[in-house]
Amino acid sequence: MELRHLRYFLAVAEEQHFGRAAERLHIVQPALSMQIKALEEELGGPLFTRSSRRVELTEAGLLLQTEARRTLEQVEHARLTVERALRGETGRVRIGFAGNAVFSGRLIDDMRLFRETYPDAELIVQEMAPHLQNDAILSGLLDVGYMPDYRAAHSAALNYECVGEWERVVAMSDAHPLSHRETLSVDLLAGEPLIFYSTNDNDTFLAETLHRLLGHEPKITHRISSTLSVLAMAAAGLGLALVPAPLAQVSIPGVVYRRLESSELAANLMLVSRKEESGGGVQAYLALARQING
Q1: Is pLDDT of 285 > 70?
Q2: Residue 215: left (phi > 0), alpha (psi -120 to 50), or beta?
Q3: What separation, in Å, do the N-terminal and C-terminal C-alpha atoms of the chain show?
């Protein structure tokens, strides 16, 4: 028994006439009669009583009418559900993010647009260190990541798209001798203990750039992956923290932010995803995020 047999059967049952049912189905009447006869032979008995003017359902036909309607309704429901999922209207998107994704507003803008466009889809958000996001996306635990560009951690299986770039600022204790300055030159960082807003030793780009600008190794005393920990340590006077400018929106007692005079130390935000992505919800999320970026 095929779905088309059920559709043919229901057309005859509802029209109570083979000719009208054939017209409705856009097939010739002899072909329809043959299909119904084949269905009756397969089931082992008559589904209709026939007269010259009309056909009526037998008791078995009435039972099949109920079941056929239920089956075709379920098939249609399944079709619509899958189509919505493929369009991204339903499903789930799991997002990992680092601090500047929130403080820059970029993550919030992307999520808000997705929620407005696909209100039935589910968003799951988790703060996670950048190098852990790479692994989580590759293993399928995350679908999308927002992170600084740790070039050494790039994977050939992932897409890395820049969705934001900002200058860096120096976060420091308000009691620090440099706190009275409005801006700081890079040479003023020489010999100062530095707190890196980092995740692991893969954060070499910033250190290498500082090395080149200073002419010697920077004095990196701490590498911290938590935004609040970085700012707390800076407030306590344990060092100067080089952080993306959006973090200056975070008001922490005892912390002041000073602009750093160097365009070479810019911070960026990458949108990371799998190159081979089949999930409709994830594809829809990425399309909207790229639309904002465009």
Answers
A1: yes
A2: left
A3: 51
| pLDDT tens per residue across span 81-129 | 788 777 767 688 999 998 778 888 899 999 999 999 999 888 999 988 7
Give the CA distances from residue 119 to residues 76, 85, 90, 115, 173, in Å, rounded to whole numbers and listed in that order. 22, 13, 8, 5, 44
Tell me: the pLDDT tens digits for 25-73? 999 999 999 999 999 999 999 999 987 778 899 999 999 999 999 999 8
Dist. CA 261–CA 77, nearest whole Å: 60
CA distance 236 to 265: 24
DSSP reduced 3-state for 112: helix
Which positions ≥6 away from 120 have C-beta within 8 Å?
84, 89, 90
β-sheet bridge partners, residue 36: none
How many helices (H) and strands (E) the chain has is answered by 10, 13
Structure token digits, residue 129: 């260190």
The pLDDT tens digits for 129-164 are 777 898 999 999 999 999 887 766 688 899 999 998
**How far apart are the C-alpha atoms of 146 and 27, rounded to whole Å?**
56
Say how far apart CA 153 and CA 229 lie, in whole Å: 23
Does the pTM surpass 0.90? The reply is no
